[in-house]
Specification:
The complex is a heterodimer of chains A (about 200) and B (about 325).
Chain A lengths: L1 H28 L4 H29 L7 H26 L4 H8 L6 H10 L4 H11 L4 H16 L15 H27 L1
Helix pairs in contact in A: 1-2, 1-5, 1-6, 1-7, 1-8, 2-5, 2-6, 3-4, 3-5, 3-8, 6-7
Chain B lengths: L3 H19 L65 H11 L3 H18 L2 H6 L1 H15 L9 H24 L10 H4 L3 H5 L1 H5 L16 H18 L13 H7 L7 E5 L9 H5 L6 H4 L16 H5 L6 E5 L2 E5 L1
The chains are: A mainly alpha (about 200), B mainly alpha (about 325).
C-alpha cells in the first residue's frame, strides 16, 4: 500500500523521464495497431523492472546512499549515454532508410528489442522517487515486505505509462509519425546532454 | 523586365524588415486596440524567471506598440520596440501555458486565421526578416561564386518532418508545463517558450538594436540542453550561406502557416497543357520543391513547403503556364 501510494505520488517524474523514450516508439511502431505498441510497452516495462531490481539489490546491500556514490553516478551516466546512442541509431534508421548502414540494420531487425534495451537503460538512472522507495524498503521489517513494497511502488509508477499505447492509432497521421521519427534524435540528444552533465558533475 | 517579381519582393522584404525592426520609433507609446484584449498572466498561473535581466528570454522590457502577433517571425526579442508583440507560435505557446481564457484568446485566434488564410506563406517569402537574412546569405554566396550545396530528397523529407516535430513539440510542451505537477525541478520555468529558446531569431534579432542577447544558460540540465540546441539551430541557420532558405525548411512558424498554403486564398496554378517540362521552376526554387515541375493534371500546385516567393513564375519561359493568384485574382503569371 505504502509503495503503491509512493509510486502514484511520484509517477509524474517517471512520466517525464520515460515518455521521451517510449512515445516516439509508440507513434512509429503503432502503425500496425495498438497491440504492437502495447507489446513494446510490455518489453519496456520488463526492462525497467530488471534495472530497478538490480538497483534495489545494490541499495539493500550497500545502503540507500548509492545515488551519491560516484561509481553509481558514472554507471547512470554511461546508461544515459548508451540510451542516447540507442535512440540516435533508432532515429537515423527510421529517418534515413535509404542509407546502406541504416537499411542493413533495419533488414536484420537489430532494433527489435529496442523497448527492452531502452527500458533497462532508462531504469538504471537512480531518480529521487526511487531513492525514496529504497529508503522505505530498508525500513521494512523483512525482505519479503521490502520486495512487496518495491513491486507495489513499481506498479504505482506504471499507472502513468499504461495509457501510452492508446496514442498508437495517431501514427496513421503521416505528419505525426514523421515528427515521432525525428523525436528519436532530439530525445537522444536530450539524454546525451543529461549523461554528459552527470558524467562531468 | 525579367526579374520584376524578385525586385518587387526585395523591396517589400526590406521595407518589412525596416518597419518590423525600427517601426516602433514612429510611435511614442503603445497603441490600444480595443478589439484585441491583451492577455496577461495572473498570480495563479505558471510564472517564469526567464524574462529577468540577462536570462535567456530577456531582451527588452519595452511593451509592444501593437499588442498582437503576426504569422511571421516578428519577435519579442527585437530590441527596439518591439512593434508587434511576437510571432504567432510564441503567442500560442505563451497563452497555452498561461491557460488564458477563451474570451481573450478568440479575437487573436481569429486575427491569426484571417492573416494566415489571406496571405498563407507569402508571410515567409515576402515579410519574414529571417527569410530576408537568408536571402542575403544566399546573395553573399553568389558574390563569392560558391556553388550551393545540393540537398537530397531524403534530407528535405527529414527537414519537413523536423518542422512538424518542432511545431507539435512546442505546443505540447507549452500545455504540459501548465500542469502544476509538471513543475518539478523548475521544469516549467526551464521549458517556458521552448521554441523561442531554440529559434535563431532570439539570438540574431537583438543585435539589430545593439543589444547582446543571452547566449547561454547553464543552470540545470534542461537549460544546458536548450542552450546546446539553440547553438545547433543557429549554426544550421548560418548554413543558409551554402543552402538557400535552409532555416525555412525546418521553421515551426512556417509549419503553422503552411496549413493555409492549401485551402487559403493564396495559390499557385499550373496549366499543364502549356508546360514543356523544361525544369526551370525546379532549378530556381529556393526550397527545392518539385511538385510544380512534376504536376501533370493538377491545376493547383501550392506545396505546403512553398514560401510563395514566386521565382518559379518569374523563371518559367512558357507564357501563361504558371499563375499566382490571391483570392482568385491573378497577381503574377509567367
Amino acid at each position: 500500500m505504502e509503495g503503491g501510494a509512493l509510486g502514484l505520488s511520484t509517477g509524474v517524474y517517471c512520466l517525464a523521464s520515460c515518455v521521451p523514450v517510449m512515445l516516439p516508439y509508440v507513434l512509429t511502431a503503432g502503425e500496425t495497431g495498438v497491440r504492437v505498441a502495447a507489446r513494446g510497452l510490455g518489453q519496456f516495462v520488463a526492462g525497467r523492472f530488471l534495472a530497478y531490481a538490480v538497483l534495489a539489490s545494490l541499495a539493500l546491500s550497500f545502503g540507500p546512499a548509492i545515488q551519491s556514490n560516484p561509481a553509481a553516478q558514472k554507471v547512470a551516466a554511461v546508461a544515459l549515454l548508451a540510451l542516447a546512442a540507442l535512440m540516435a541509431v533508432q532515429g537515423l534508421v527510421r529517418n534515413f532508410p535509404e542509407v546502406k548502414v541504416c537499411a542493413y540494420l533495419e533488414r536484420h531487425g537489430a532494433f527489435r528489442r529496442y523497448p527492452l534495451l531502452a527500458g533497462t537503460l532508462a531504469g538504471l538512472n537512480v531518480c529521487p522517487p526511487l531513492m525514496l522507495c529504497f529508503a522505505a524498503m530498508l525500513n521494512s521489517p523483512n525482505p519479503g515486505a521490502a520486495a512487496s513494497l518495491g513491486v507495489s511502488f513499481f506498479a504505482g509508477t506504471l499507472v502513468f505509462l499504461l495509457p501510452l499505447p492508446v496514442f498508437a492509432p495517431l501514427a496513421k497521421r503521416q505528419g505525426l509519425r514523421g515528427a515521432a521519427e525525428v523525436a528519436f534524435l532530439f530525445c537522444g540528444l536530450w539524454y546525451l546532454v543529461n549523461g554528459l552533465v552527470l558524467l562531468t558533475r | 523586365m525579367k526579374h520584376k517579381i524578385t525586385l518587387i519582393r526585395r523591396i517589400v522584404q526590406w521595407a518589412a524588415f525596416l518597419f518590423l525592426f525600427y517601426g516602433a520609433l514612429l510611435w511614442p507609446k503603445p497603441v490600444e486596440i480595443g478589439m484585441l484584449p491583451a492577455p496577461k498572466p495572473d498570480k495563479s498561473q505558471p510564472k517564469t524567471s526567464k524574462y529577468a535581466d540577462n536570462r535567456i528570454l530577456w531582451v527588452s522590457s519595452k511593451a509592444a506598440i501593437f499588442d498582437f502577433s503576426l504569422p511571421t517571425l516578428t519577435c519579442r526579442f527585437m530590441s527596439i520596440g518591439p512593434l508587434f508583440l511576437s510571432c504567432s507560435l510564441h503567442w500560442f505557446s505563451e497563452n497555452i501555458t498561461w491557460l488564458t481564457s477563451l474570451r481573450i484568446v478568440l479575437p487573436h485566434l481569429l486575427l491569426f486565421f484571417v492573416l494566415a488564410f489571406v496571405l498563407a506563406r507569402f508571410w515567409c517569402g515576402w515579410v519574414c526578416p529571417l527569410g530576408a537574412m537568408q536571402d542575403v546569405l544566399n546573395w553573399i554566396r553568389k558574390v563569392l561564386r560558391l556553388n550551393p550545396l545540393i540537398v537530397s530528397d531524403g534530407w528535405n523529407g527529414f527537414f519537413a518532418k523536423t518542422r512538424q516535430f518542432l511545431l507539435y513539440m512546442s505546443l505540447v510542451v507549452s500545455a504540459l508545463i501548465a500542469i502544476p505537477a509538471f513543475g518539478f525541478e523548475g521544469a516549467n520555468d526551464a521549458l517556458f517558450l521552448i521554441y523561442c529558446q531554440l529559434c535563431p531569431a532570439r539570438l540574431i534579432y537583438p543585435l539589430f538594436g545593439g543589444v547582446k542577447p543571452c547566449y547561454y544558460d547553464f543552470t540545470n540540465s534542461i537549460t544546458i540542453f536548450m542552450t546546446v540546441l539553440g547553438w545547433l539551430f543557429l549554426a544550421f541557420f548560418l548554413v543558409s550561406l551554402a543552402v538557400p532558405r535552409l532555416w525555412c525548411r525546418i521553421c515551426a512558424i512556417g509549419a503553422l502557416v503552411s496549413y493555409f498554403n492549401r485551402g487559403g486564398l493564396a495559390r499557385l496554378e499550373k496549366n499543364s497543357q502549356k508546360c514543356t517540362f523544361c525544369g526551370a521552376c525546379r532549378r530556381c526554387c529556393p526550397v527545392d520543391i518539385s511538385l510544380v515541375y512534376q504536376a501533370r493534371d493538377q491545376r493547383v500546385v501550392t506545396d505546403p513547403k512553398c514560401v510563395l516567393c514566386l521565382r518559379c513564375v518569374q523563371e518559367c519561359p512558357e507564357k501563361d503556364c504558371l499563375e499566382a493568384k490571391l483570392a482568385g485574382q491573378t497577381i503574377a503569371k509567367s
